Amino acid sequence: MKLNTNKKTLAVLLVLSSMVACTNRLDVLDENNPTTESYFKTALELQNGVNAIYSTLRSANLVGREWFFTHDMRGGETASGGSQLEAPRAELLKQSSPAPSNSVMTSVWLASYQMINRANLVLSKAPGISDNTALRDRLVGEAKFLRAWAYFELVSQWGDVPVYTDPITSSTEFKGKTPAADIYTLIISDVTDAVAKLPASYGSSDRGRATKGAANTLLGKVQMQKGDYAAAKAALLQVYGQYSLVNFLWNFDGDIKEDGGQLITAGHEFNAESIFEVVFVDKGDNNFNWGYNGEGSTSPMSGVRNQEYGITWGNVIPSDRLLNEFEAGDPRYAMTIYEEGNQILTAPGAKDNINNPSVTPLTLTAAAMNIATSTIFPQV
């Protein structure tokens, strides 16, 4: 009887241990589908989170396309190139306050908050990273710089807007508006911390990331927008003398280009004049990220400003007001305005104009060129 009881007890224990073993084998991490809870355990994973913020910045919702319309179309330098200019963009030319349904403004609004939410996620995970604290702290600086940039876009255009400093996962977590003065306080706090954490420069493999100079420049810009000129001066003096002007044509030759194996231009991106650039890469596939998210290893990584403003689409052209600013014979006109019949700088045979001061410069504009980067400062 006792023997049978022992056998039954042993059998039960074997069954239980088998169940526990099966449960342990099934309770594993799906490495192909990480979650916000299972990810962000190392500094490199945190860096991937920061890269995702840059992806949104580069997307068509922002610098890739819609962002430059919200600034360029609100001044007096541009005009419609014709009826092909889509209605939302034409509205920005005609009305100081576009309709709430304007898709350009909606794109900038949504992408700015996507940048903010991604930055908030990175910042919430950073305290748990310990394998590389130096990289972690730098990434915190980048995330704060990018969050500040996004909030500055929002507050400078909309005034009072909702503020989120923690990541959200549901639309039910919405908040009401925060006074603009409080938003500027948050922006200044973020940028000030970014200044302390960011390096002065990066190696060639990390170009395009925020630097100490970019953070100080943004801080100065924010303070000027607030009207605190003394604070703006203090911030901008931190970058005084760190940058210098370069050959005018270097701004238009983009990245390295070849034609039939012949080098047309070696490119002059990230030169001494550049404070912060959003990186675009011409993959040569004649495509654009119409999905508007700027993400994915196979996603096109180009911008379309050169097509909107250039000879490709011609949606936007210089206004008469801008053209009339030039007097007859003004040599600056040929260096600023692209006209029909002018030769593109990167066309075969034109490469010597880049560095040869004895050659008469070609007439061109930045919009007419296939520029691989977009300089954030001082454009807006």
Secondary structure topology:
Layout: H1 2-26, H2 43-58, H3 66-72, E1 78-80, H4 87-94, H5 103-125, H6 133-158, E2 161-162, E3 177-178, H7 180-197, H8 212-226, H9 229-236, E4 257-259, E5 262-265, E6 277-279, H10 305-309, E7 316-318, H11 320-323, H12 331-334, E8 373-375
Antiparallel strand pairs: 1-7, 2-3, 4-5, 6-8
Helix pairs in contact: 2-5, 2-6, 3-5, 5-6, 6-7, 6-8, 7-8, 8-9
Strand order of the largest sheet: 1-7
**CATH topology term:** Serine Threonine Protein Phosphatase 5, Tetratricopeptide repeat
Q: Which structural class fits the helix and strand makeup?
A: mainly alpha
Strand % is 5-15%
**CATH-defined architecture:** Alpha Horseshoe
Any low-confidence stretches, pLDDT <50, length ≥5? 347-380
> Which percent bin holds the helix content?
40-55%
Give structural notes.
It is a single chain. With 380 residues, this protein is mainly α. It has helices spanning 2-26, 43-58, 66-72, 87-94, 103-125, 133-158, 180-197, 212-226, 229-236, 305-309, 320-323, 331-334; strands at residues 78-80, 161-162, 177-178, 257-259, 262-265, 277-279, 316-318, 373-375. The strands form four sheets. The chain has a two-stranded antiparallel ribbon. It has a two-stranded antiparallel sheet with strand order 2-3. A two-stranded antiparallel ribbon has the order 4-5. It is globular, with a radius of gyration of 26 Å. Mean pLDDT is 83; it is low at 347-380.
